[in-house]
Design brief:
Rhopdopsin 7-helix transmembrane proteins, mainly alpha, elongated, 13 helices, 80% helix, two-stranded antiparallel sheet
Length: 351
């Protein structure tokens, strides 16, 4: 009798094991497209972010103040797109927040104290510490949850988030992004409007100045001769000539400085727009994951309620945030001319 019961239990165990193996195989097969996409993410992230590190870190010379954080962001994105540990993901998020604060000071508070190299390095260390502090207790926030297959009447286990702390952290960071970049965007738009008004004003003033010059040229010949005599007498005075040359030199320096300031301001705004676009793409890519995490927290059977194909689609949205880690090199290529030129030159040398 005992042998028969043991045989029945062994048969049931074999049947259950076969069902579980079949279930795992079906799940793996349906997730193959997602795995292919992840492989593409890895390849693109490796190539693109490595190029960014090479160009911004070693090829672009001169003042790198506005581009200081780009190689570090590329390194964080490279790590996150390849191995995807949570501390690397948090590094990218908090580094973007530091960049937003840096751009806010540059654009909205240009006359006040800015981030020095010392503070930038301190901010980088702070990012690493916070990212590690949030990712270290990951085993506490995640665990195994039962997952039932209604069709086969078997129960498996899946990894799931047990706490909502990280979601709340990300929501706070997203809210900070929105506040900072709304203020930055408003300031840039206001500056562009002012520049446009100044350009219109200068264009209307030029004809008036030309008319005044014509009035001077239409003076009588006698007055012109008198002016010519006065100029000749002045030309004999070396001190006045030296002063005139000094004045011309000062005017030339003033014009050069004004032109340089205008160019620097244009570069600052261009780099700021690059970072704004990067942050907008981050929000677009990360918000689906945040929404799914919130729904998952409210409904313990969230993943079980989908069909296998539906679950694969939701998983694609859940992993869509990885796009944020691989798209940045494309943005630099289109919006940063210096980076684009260096990439083209590097490709010519390699070919």
């Amino acid at each position: 009798m005992y042998c028969k019961e043991l045989q029945v239990n062994m048969d049931n165990g074999t049947i259950l094991s076969d069902k579980l193996d079949k279930w795992n195989s079906d799940l793996a097969r349906r997730l193959t497209p997602n795995n292919v996409i992840l492989s593409l993410y890895i390849a693109i992230g490796l190539l693109g972010n490595s190029t960014v590190i090479l160009i911004y870190g070693f090829k672009i010379k001169g003042n790198k103040e506005d581009r200081y954080f780009i190689p570090f962001l590329a390194f964080a994105d490279l790590s996150a797109s390849i191995v995807l540990p949570y501390n690397k993901t948090f590094c990218s998020i908090f580094l973007l927040l530091i960049i937003a604060i840096h751009r806010y000071l540059k654009i909205c508070r240009p006359q006040r104290k800015q981030m020095t190299l010392k503070w930038k390095r301190f901010a980088m260390c702070l990012v690493l510490i916070i990212a590690f502090a949030l990712s270290a207790p990951m085993s506490y926030f995640y665990g195994s949850v039962s997952f039932k297959n209604e069709k086969e009447n078997i129960v498996g286990l899946r990894c799931s988030r047990l706490k909502t702390t990280h979601v709340l952290t990300i929501i706070i960071v997203i809210f900070s992004f929105i506040c900072l970049y709304l203020r930055i965007g408003y300031t840039i738009i206001k500056h562009f409007k002012y520049s446009k008004t100044q350009k219109t004003y200068n264009n209307t003033e030029k004809p008036r100045q030309n008319n005044k010059r014509k009035g001077v040229h239409s003076c009588s010949n006698g007055r012109l001769r008198n002016m010519d005599t006065e100029l000749k007498s002045l030309s004999s005075n070396e001190e006045i000539l030296a002063g005139s040359r000094t004045g011309d030199a000062k005017q030339s320096v003033f014009m050069t400085c004004a032109k340089r300031r205008k160019q620097n301001r244009r570069v600052v705004h261009k780099i700021t727009l690059v970072f704004m676009l990067i942050t907008v793409i981050f929000l677009i890519c990360y918000i689906p994951k945040v929404i799914i995490k919130l729904l998952e927290a409210r409904n313990a059977r969230f993943w079980e309620e989908f069909s296998d194909s539906g679950r694969a689609g939701v998983l694609f949205l859940y992993r869509f945030f990885i796009i944020n880690n691989i798209i940045n090199p494309v943005i630099y290529a289109f919006m940063d001319k210096k980076f684009s030129r260096k990439v083209k030159l590097f490709c010519k040398i390699c070919s």
